[in-house]
């Protein structure tokens, strides 16, 4: 019988397994007789039982069921009944979503919103995020761009309702447009002004323009009296009407004035004391149907046409002298109202997209960008072929999140649109049908269920993307 010595390697047992000492290893974990980790057992004892966790979650689950699950289930059931809720109509409410002018306009506008708004916001957020990396005051810029997110959609709608006012004196958008327009195309207009009617008058109206009835030649003078000039259209620099200046060879002179004397009196078709010249009127000499000379009246209404060719000519005041001055665009009209509301949405949500994309941009390895620049790539090539592909996951998440949000847009459309059917979207039409005068909760519930089904794929895609990133 061999005695075992201290330090002798363990003897191989049958089957090739090394004999393991009976006592626990000095540095090994403490185990129970069955080999169970004691510390794991202690951790298991610290973990609350499932029934206790469920007990704490029960209030939240009840609230969630009452506020979310129950309304969804009830809306689905209600969508199969008529307006009174007594008669089962099947899928008639769902087919009715795509019938009728107002519903079709809402479906069309919703499709426009889904395609245009998320794309514009994502592009704006991407540009802001990339460009702010190159300025020193990027933090202040990001704060200003993100600030609209701190304003409620109701307040944003009120703000842009004022911005889009038709009157340039009230609406910021039209004030800017009128300022730019007048900068490149000045001039004064006298809407409604025209010649004296009846009798043998020296001027007549022709296609909206005012034309002399007689012909003139270079070296002569012509008088062009006008009536029906509203006082509010008289410019501040208007002066008393003056006689036409003497014409030199090759010139044709004249006066355009408001042929009306306050208090009565005075001879018609002749500048009288107290009558005002009309400045800023565009005057043309016409020969053979073409304008051969042009001029603009001065503060006293006088004008001088130079380089007038030989032969008879007529004097014409073009019709744009008598049309209303440019007052900007009708933003809240049927044509521009949806793009105008999308513009306000862009203002509100660009900061959200910028912050998310900037976070993704900060995670891009700078080595990849520097390597592209070292290889000779321009900044545009780096942006298009390196930055965009690396940011693609973030851009997709932002785009899908905005699509979900756009499908539910209501506040901005309701406030800015002011109930205009041309601005309606499905979410607003759902409210209108149910509570806004339609009194048909069956049709409204069908629209709500349809919106829920449209949102589900986008939500599922977002969840799938998040799980892919975690893996």
Short recap of the structure:
By secondary structure, the chain is an alpha+beta fold. It is 46% helix and 9% strand. The model is unreliable at 1-30 (pLDDT under 50).
Descriptive notes:
Strand 6 (282-287) and strand 7 form a beta hairpin. Helix 2 (50-78) packs across helix 13, helix 6 (153-163) packs parallel to helix 11 and helix 8 (337-362) packs across helix 10. The chain has 13 helices and 9 strands. It folds into 2 domains: 97-168 and 331-470, MetI-like fold, CATH 1.10.3720; 203-321, no CATH class. Mean pLDDT is 85; it is low at 1-30. The protein has a 5-stranded antiparallel β-sheet, with no helix packed on it. Strands 3, 4, 5 and 8 form a 4-stranded mixed β-sheet that branches. It has 471 residues and is α+β, with helices and mostly antiparallel strands. The protein has helices at residues 38-46, 50-78, 92-96, 101-131, 138-146, 153-163, 172-184, 337-362, 366-374, 379-407, 411-417, 426-434, 441-470; strands at 203-206, 209-212, 221-226, 252-258, 276-277, 282-287, 290-296, 302-305, 314-317.
Secondary structure layout plus pairing:
Blueprint: H1 38-46, H2 50-78, H3 92-96, H4 101-131, H5 138-146, H6 153-163, H7 172-184, E1 203-206, E2 209-212, E3 221-226, E4 252-258, E5 276-277, E6 282-287, E7 290-296, E8 302-305, E9 314-317, H8 337-362, H9 366-374, H10 379-407, H11 411-417, H12 426-434, H13 441-470
Parallel strand pairs: 3-4
Antiparallel strand pairs: 1-2, 2-9, 4-5, 4-8, 6-7, 6-9
């Amino acid at each position: 019988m061999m005695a075992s010595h201290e330090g002798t390697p363990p003897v191989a047992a049958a089957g090739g397994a090394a004999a393991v000492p009976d006592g626990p290893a000095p540095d090994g974990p403490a185990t129970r007789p069955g080999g169970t980790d004691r510390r794991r057992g202690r951790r298991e004892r610290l973990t609350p039982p499932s029934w206790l966790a469920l007990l704490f979650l029960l209030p939240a689950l009840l609230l969630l069921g009452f506020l979310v699950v129950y309304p969804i289930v009830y809306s689905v059931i209600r969508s199969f009944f008529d307006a009174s809720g007594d008669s089962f109509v099947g899928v008639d409410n769902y087919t009715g979503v795509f019938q009728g002018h107002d519903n079709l306009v809402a479906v069309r506008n919703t499709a426009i919103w889904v395609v245009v708004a998320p794309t514009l916001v994502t592009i704006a957020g991407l540009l802001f995020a990339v460009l702010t990396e190159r300025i020193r005051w990027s933090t202040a810029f990001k704060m200003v761009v993100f600030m609209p997110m701190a304003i409620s959609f109701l307040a944003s709608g009120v703000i842009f309702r004022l911005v889009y006012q038709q009157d340039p004196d009230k609406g910021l958008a039209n004030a800017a447009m009128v300022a730019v327009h007048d900068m490149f195309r000045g001039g004064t207009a006298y809407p409604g002004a025209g010649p004296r009617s009846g009798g043998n008058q020296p001027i007549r109206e022709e296609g909206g323009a005012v034309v002399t009835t007689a012909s003139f030649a270079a070296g002569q003078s012509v008088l062009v009296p006008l009536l029906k000039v509203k006082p509010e259209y008289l410019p501040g620099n208007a002066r008393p009407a003056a006689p036409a200046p003497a014409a030199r060879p090759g010139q044709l002179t004249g006066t355009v004035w408001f042929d009306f004397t306050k208090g009565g009196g005075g001879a018609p078709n002749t500048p009288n004391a107290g009558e005002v010249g009309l400045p800023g009127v565009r005057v043309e000499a016409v020969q053979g149907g073409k304008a051969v000379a042009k001029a603009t009246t001065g503060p006293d209404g006088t004008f001088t046409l130079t380089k007038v060719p030989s032969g008879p000519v007529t004097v014409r005041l073009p019709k744009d002298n008598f049309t209303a001055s440019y007052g900007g665009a009708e933003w809240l009209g049927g044509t521009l109202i949806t793009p105008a509301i999308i513009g306000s949405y862009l203002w509100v949500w660009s900061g959200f997209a910028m912050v998310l994309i900037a976070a993704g941009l900060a995670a891009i390895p700078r080595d990849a960008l520097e390597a592209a620049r070292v290889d000779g790539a321009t900044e545009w090539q780096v942006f298009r072929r390196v930055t965009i592909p690396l940011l693609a996951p973030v851009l997709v998440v932002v785009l899908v999140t905005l699509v979900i949000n756009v499908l539910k847009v209501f506040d901005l459309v309701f406030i800015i649109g002011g109930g205009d059917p041309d601005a309606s979207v499905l979410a607003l039409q759902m409210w209108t049908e149910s509570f806004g005068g339609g009194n048909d909760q069956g049709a409204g519930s069908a629209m709500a269920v349809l919106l829920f089904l449209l949102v589900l794929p986008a939500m599922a895609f977002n969840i799938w993307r998040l799980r892919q990133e975690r893996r």
